[in-house]
Amino acid sequence: MQTLTETKTQLPTLTHTRNPGMALDLDWVAGVQANTSAIERRAGTIGGRRSVKKEFQAAWLLKAISLIDLTTLSGDDTEGRVKRLCAKARQPVAPWMLDKLGLQGLTTGAVCVYHEMVETAVRALEGTNIPVAAVSTGFPAGLSPYHLRIAEIGESIRAGAKEIDIVISRRHVLTGNWQALYDEMREMRAACGEAHVKAILATGELATLRNVARASLVCMMAGADFIKTSTGKEAVNATLPVSLTMIRCIRDYQDRTGIKVGYKPAGGIAKAKDALLYLALMKDELGHPWLQPDLFRFGASSLLGDIERQLEHHLTGQYSASNRHAMG
Questions:
Q1: Is 284 an annotated catalytic residue?
Q2: What is the DSSP letter of 263?
Q3: This prediction's pTM
Q4: Choosing from 264, 274, 294, 306, which is the catalytic residue?
Q5: Is 100 considered catalytic here?
Q6: Per-residue pLDDT tens over the stretch 242-296
Q7: How far apart are CA 24 and CA 219, in angstroms?
Q8: Which domains does the chain have, with CATH numbers?
């Protein structure tokens, strides 16, 4: 596990390693299985097997901050709220805490907003390397007319988004129409151009872990740079069993093609202890390369506040009130 000293010298630099995709291999897709009981047993062991304390925990929580897509996706978003969120992304932890920890230059991995707020976020983040991610393609349901979903990607890129979080059509998964899912993902990937594309599977609506595994594989074949669990709007969002299923598909894809694909759990990850579980899972299953923001992100809106509280407790021995660590 990393120490604070190692964290100081390993602040990650975002790189846009792209997944070119491959031809759809239906035999590979059909052969994918998921042993639900075994996956759930393995996921249930993570908390007991990986426990970090004191300065090691602080180092891992600082790492988690650098991997957060700091997100606001509410119907009542305003320019003011987005500007405050961007200020938090630039300075995610109180300066006095960073001074005590001996760390400078820490930021979140990205800021994620609706298309309407992309331009505001881009302006607010000028002078930084923090990318703006836009949710797109009829987020969260993905049921708007197809040509409008494709056009929405282009609009967000022209507004300055460097990453696009697209939603797939769940019906293609539920009906086993893998060719349609592949074609859709391939066209969305092409529309993103140089922007990173994260494919949101909405795993809580896919019925089975086998469907999750097959959808993950098809989206990677079609060129997704990241696969992401959820929109955050479903009844069930990121879980450890779903995550284990998806990251093992990432590992299989790398073994077959040599290409690294990123992973983003999103929705329901609100506590620092949850972030530590996901980091431990990634380290165990995929290794250190997937502890950098070009291959791993948390989709979160409230996680950062709890991490700040834990860091303050590490430094002072006391927990502060949550309202002292607001997002803006």
A1: no
A2: E
A3: 0.93
A4: 264
A5: no
A6: 999 999 999 999 999 999 999 999 999 999 999 999 999 999 999 999 999 999 9
A7: 10
A8: 4-10+22-325 (3.20.20.70)
